[in-house]
Amino acid sequence: MKSVSTPGEAARPVGAPVSRPSVTGHLQAWLPKLVLAPSVVISLCFVYGFMLWTFVLSLTDSRMLPSYDFVGFAQYARLMNNERWWVAATNLGVFGVLFVGLCLVLGAGLAILLDQRIRREGMLRTLYLYPMALSFIVTGVVWKWLLNPGLGIQAMVRGWGFESFTFDWLVDPDMAVYTLVIAAVWQASGFVMALFLAGLRGIDDSILKAAQLDGASLPRVYWRVVMPCLRPVVFSAVMILSHIAIKSFDLVVALTGGGPGYSSDLPATFMYAHAFTRAQIGMGSASAILMLGGVLAILVPYLYSELRSRRHG
Amino acid sequence: MSALEIDNVCKDFGTTRVLEEVSLAIDSGEFLILVGPSGCGKSTLMNAIAGLEPVTSGRILVGGDDITWRTPAERDIAMVFQSYALYPSMTVRGNIAFGLEMRKVPRAEREAAVERVADLLQISHLLDRKPAQLSGGQRQRVAMGRALAREPQIYLFDEPLSNLDAKLRVEMRTEIKKLHQRLGTTIVYVTHDQIEAMTLADSIAVMRDGRILQLGTPDEVYNNPVDKYVAGFMGSPSMNFIEAELAGEPGAYRLHIATEGEAALTLPWPTSRETPALAERLGQTVTLGLRPEHFAEEDTRLGDRAEGTPLSARVSVVEPTGADILLRLPLGDTEITARVGPDCQVAPDERLGLRVDMRRAVLFDADTDARLA
């Protein structure tokens, strides 16, 4: 049957029953909702439903298995007194700020350099983008070998004759979290570069010419004229990077395993360890809810200010 | 001393030569228009003057100083772009003041300049808006304001009106002309619109394939074109080109035009317009150039006192434009356009008596398109 573009369209043949178009019309109006309904139900149930369940569990004394003996906010109080939680939370702060910041700086820098109409640009672009094709597990393993003092960079430089060279962050409890930053930045900055490059290509060439004629040096052209045009790109990059940072789990597992000790734990690994291996489902749920709160606290104001300023041009 | 002198400038992109030994000079306060079809090198020449494209050879001088190898920032030149090229993140005020800020002009002076320019262009009420909140015409004014604020030695306009609608284009054209008359600025203006060229310019450079074909006043370029290309490019509707055989003798040349199904038409060539080149072409085919306005309707009341050479032709199409009527008539093996007064009463397929002003006609070589007379 041929579909009618508008339900109320008066294009039906003369003498056709009046009720039929109205039935198809109803179908037309309901079809999008029907098609979307399963995914709405699934996400309501498995995303928001489980969020709610996690919150409920965080208020109980669940340990190995879920129980429904409510203990109020006791699990949160335990969490606040847990030193390992604070290590994980501080690590997330360090890791998140450095990871997002370095990715933005490196990505923007690479994009600006690639945008200077250089030769072999397509090849370089692909090269920088390749790490994004790897999973964090592979990245973690590769960097684990590179950073292993006995196998990787340190062993190589010592092999060259610099006997006193030391690069053992992977096994140093104070520095282990920075190895996470190195690996994650290596993986994601090419992607940020691609975002910035697309943004740069969208800028009218004559704006750059006008700024040059106005007497601005190349760094000032980029700082004063181009970068302000790329605010939406920065917005998208920050959104994508911060959610990668907060849910980082596989990288930690593959690269440091949270160690040495628990010095490079992130909240995601903390939550996993407590909920699934240490039989502390209640405290694990509490930490998960705190992570959700952290995400909302950062993203909601940012989303609000960005979307509002865009609406006002 | 010329305000701007371009001396034998060549420009290659790889192996393609886009500017071929271009030379020109304009005086201070002059309005030069570079006109030509797309790809003729006019924008490349403009970019070379601005310093955005390095030239392959030749020199560019501004006020006697050789600026060929200076950066755009070191040249005292401002440019208005076709796309306006306003900085989207800055307000109108910021846009206008940016050039001054980059040149480290003190804040008070900057603000005075913004006020002066905004007043001049009547955009004072827009100063705190962002470019996205402006209409096309307003953006155009801001782009001009940005150039004016710096008071450079030379202004470059790169097809500034092409993105505006027809009505606004005519308004802004007048406005640019007024500004030029008032401020006496030196302007180089690129366009492909020959009407803009005719109305604005003190001098016009017609370009094609990287060369300047003719540099002259609008009147010279229009009435005294150097070749068939320039003659055809300037003027709308464009000049009619009719194949004709040159006959007669010095002092009494005639042009024979054979029209299918009609008696051959003979037009006398005015004695005052004879050139030595004509003698060599005797008996050969030449191209006669006649503009639509060189024709007029035969006025029977004047009788023999009427000026011009009479001819009669069958009208195939009548196109009234309001101000006048354009007629299409077969003549020779082409169909020509004639412009007659708005009260001409003629219907398609009727014969109409016309007078043609041969004193303003031009002759070209049929093979080389060069001007003969």
Automatic annotation (TrEMBL), chain A:
<feature type="transmembrane region" description="Helical">
    <location>
        <begin position="85"/>
        <end position="114"/>
    </location>
</feature>
<dbReference type="InterPro" id="IPR000515">
    <property type="entry name" value="MetI-like"/>
</dbReference>
<keyword id="KW-1133">Transmembrane helix</keyword>
<keyword id="KW-0472">Membrane</keyword>
<keyword id="KW-0812">Transmembrane</keyword>
<keyword id="KW-1003">Cell membrane</keyword>
<feature type="transmembrane region" description="Helical">
    <location>
        <begin position="175"/>
        <end position="200"/>
    </location>
</feature>
<feature type="transmembrane region" description="Helical">
    <location>
        <begin position="34"/>
        <end position="56"/>
    </location>
</feature>
<feature type="transmembrane region" description="Helical">
    <location>
        <begin position="221"/>
        <end position="246"/>
    </location>
</feature>
<comment type="similarity">
    <text>Belongs to the binding-protein-dependent transport system permease family.</text>
</comment>
<protein>
    <submittedName>
        <fullName>Sugar ABC transporter permease</fullName>
    </submittedName>
</protein>
<dbReference type="InterPro" id="IPR035906">
    <property type="entry name" value="MetI-like_sf"/>
</dbReference>
<dbReference type="InterPro" id="IPR051393">
    <property type="entry name" value="ABC_transporter_permease"/>
</dbReference>
<feature type="transmembrane region" description="Helical">
    <location>
        <begin position="281"/>
        <end position="304"/>
    </location>
</feature>
<feature type="domain" description="ABC transmembrane type-1">
    <location>
        <begin position="89"/>
        <end position="304"/>
    </location>
</feature>
<feature type="transmembrane region" description="Helical">
    <location>
        <begin position="126"/>
        <end position="146"/>
    </location>
</feature>
<dbReference type="Pfam" id="PF00528">
    <property type="entry name" value="BPD_transp_1"/>
</dbReference>
<keyword id="KW-0813">Transport</keyword>
<dbReference type="GO" id="GO:0005886">
    <property type="term" value="C:plasma membrane"/>
</dbReference>
<dbReference type="GO" id="GO:0055085">
    <property type="term" value="P:transmembrane transport"/>
</dbReference>
From TrEMBL, chain B:
<dbReference type="InterPro" id="IPR012340">
    <property type="entry name" value="NA-bd_OB-fold"/>
</dbReference>
<keyword id="KW-0547">Nucleotide-binding</keyword>
<feature type="domain" description="ABC transporter">
    <location>
        <begin position="4"/>
        <end position="234"/>
    </location>
</feature>
<dbReference type="InterPro" id="IPR047641">
    <property type="entry name" value="ABC_transpr_MalK/UgpC-like"/>
</dbReference>
<dbReference type="InterPro" id="IPR015855">
    <property type="entry name" value="ABC_transpr_MalK-like"/>
</dbReference>
<dbReference type="InterPro" id="IPR040582">
    <property type="entry name" value="OB_MalK-like"/>
</dbReference>
<dbReference type="GO" id="GO:0005524">
    <property type="term" value="F:ATP binding"/>
</dbReference>
<dbReference type="GO" id="GO:0016887">
    <property type="term" value="F:ATP hydrolysis activity"/>
</dbReference>
<dbReference type="GO" id="GO:0140359">
    <property type="term" value="F:ABC-type transporter activity"/>
</dbReference>
<keyword id="KW-0813">Transport</keyword>
<dbReference type="Pfam" id="PF17912">
    <property type="entry name" value="OB_MalK"/>
</dbReference>
<dbReference type="InterPro" id="IPR008995">
    <property type="entry name" value="Mo/tungstate-bd_C_term_dom"/>
</dbReference>
<dbReference type="GO" id="GO:0008643">
    <property type="term" value="P:carbohydrate transport"/>
</dbReference>
<dbReference type="Pfam" id="PF00005">
    <property type="entry name" value="ABC_tran"/>
</dbReference>
<dbReference type="InterPro" id="IPR003593">
    <property type="entry name" value="AAA+_ATPase"/>
</dbReference>
<dbReference type="InterPro" id="IPR027417">
    <property type="entry name" value="P-loop_NTPase"/>
</dbReference>
<keyword id="KW-0067">ATP-binding</keyword>
<protein>
    <submittedName>
        <fullName>ABC transporter ATP-binding protein</fullName>
    </submittedName>
</protein>
<dbReference type="InterPro" id="IPR003439">
    <property type="entry name" value="ABC_transporter-like_ATP-bd"/>
</dbReference>
<dbReference type="InterPro" id="IPR017871">
    <property type="entry name" value="ABC_transporter-like_CS"/>
</dbReference>
<dbReference type="GO" id="GO:0055052">
    <property type="term" value="C:ATP-binding cassette (ABC) transporter complex, substrate-binding subunit-containing"/>
</dbReference>
